[in-house]
Amino acid sequence: MTPQELRAFCLSFNAAVEDFPFSPEISVFKVQGKLFALSYLDARPLKANLKCDPDEAVRLRGEYEGLIVPGWHMNKRHWNTVTVDGGLPDQLVRELIEDSYDLVVAGLPRADRLRLDRP
User: Fold this and answer.
1) pLDDT digits (tens, 9 = 90+) for 61-93
2) In what order do the strands lie in the sheet with 79-83?
3) How far apart are CA 51 and CA 71, in angstroms?
């Protein structure tokens, strides 16, 4: 997955936006003001911080040792740093991004979730 593909996929979700609250180099993808993905898109290898169910996070770290690690500068129980262009199947990366988005949306107030469901 290229940086352009990562950006486009993150922005393909309903109400997703790209923001730069930390620096102009770090893309932060949010839904309703809540972060679901963070990446320095010019970095090599390309990596992204993604929210993850805690049990699933541990399982993924064991299965993809070195490619999925505890979230850098994040709550390591709930976030993984995923090497996007380093040997993981693109389909898995897309699933991890989608899971991150879904976890964040699930934590939003009901009214915000309902607004996201409207066309």
Assistant:
1) 999 999 999 998 888 889 999 999 878 999 999
2) 16-19, 26-31, 34-40, 47-51, 79-83, 68-70
3) 8
